[in-house]
Amino acid sequence: MTRFTHIAVVALIAGGSIISSCKEKENKAASGSGGGGSRPPTSVNAVIAGTHDVSSTVNSSGTLLSNEEVEIRPELQARVIKVNFKEGSLVAKGQLLVKLDDAELVAQLKKLQAQKALNQKNLERLEELLKIEGVSRQEYDAVQTQVKAFDADIDLIKAQLRKTEIRAPFSGEIGLTNVVEGSYVTPLTLIATLQQTDPLKVDFAVPEKYAQLVKKGSKLYFTVDGFRDTFEATVYATESKIDLATRNIKVRARYPNRNGKLIPGMFARVSLGIENRQGAVMIPTQSLIPVARGKQVIVSKGGKAVFVSVEAGLRNEDQVEIIEGIQPGDTVITTGIMQLRPGALLRVSVGNKAGAAK
Length: 358
Description:
By secondary structure, this protein is an alpha+beta fold. The chain is 24% helix and 40% strand. It has helices at residues 3-31, 103-131, 137-163, and strands at residues 42-48, 50-72, 78-83, 90-91, 96-100, 165-167, 172-174, 184-185, 192-207, 219-224, 231-238, 248-255, 267-284, 289-291, 294-301, 304-315, 319-324, 331-333, 346-350. The strands form 3 sheets. A 6-stranded antiparallel beta barrel has the order 2-9-12-11-10-13. Strands 6-5-3-8 form a 4-stranded antiparallel beta sheet. A hairpin with a 2-residue loop joins strand 15 and strand 16 (304-315). The termini are far apart. 20% of the residues are buried.
């Protein structure tokens, strides 16, 4: 064997030893042996899924309105001879608010009444003559028709006279007046505004997807600027159609404003409960994992991570209802979710239950 052949054989043996050593290390690493040992469990936090009474709410902006509101305007052109209310006062239904000048109408009424009386006497005389055929039936009918015409004219004047007395159509609070005694008014003149503020209406709108969930009798809560209180109202009506421009449905509630604290026109922040469920399975919102075809949750079973597909329901500020996939008592992972893989070993630290059992 030559010198060069000897050197080549030694190099080949050494290279084979190195390759064999590397393969042995790779096999040990792949099998989890040799120095490092098996992968340690991942430390995570978890909660025990519990049951809870949950409600879903929808928030909206609303406006407070008067229960009844009307602009007081005259129906005649005339001069005001009396203003019978104080600005900002409460008035009763039927109370005289303003009296207009009726002298001309009263004179016309007296004239018509006198003419009717004269024709009534003529009619009575003709009736006696008709019995003995002293007059024709045509003459009698003509005078009778004239008497009826006077009755109609008198009724018309009386109706106009009633319009000279402007009365409150309902009980409420009257606002600022725009006329004084001696003012000349027309049907375009606004005398004052009358509002009934007990109760108040709360008008607001909710998206169309909640239309079937808003029920008559539902309770809502609202707040207004300037008050720390939260007020409660009751839904009593909804619009019969969806607004095509906003895709919302209009809702109206009633608030008993007995102390007169709130006034019409106020802006209200409304919170309406649209659905309530008892004994719902609740877990923290951060436990949900969005996936391509729904949502998943990681639970601990036998110390290992198990990925479970779930169906979510109602939500509140920090919890979500699980309709399907989780049972009360399951251990739901809340931290380290993105690092876990199916079957990973877990070291679980359990916190409070997600929802108190009831």
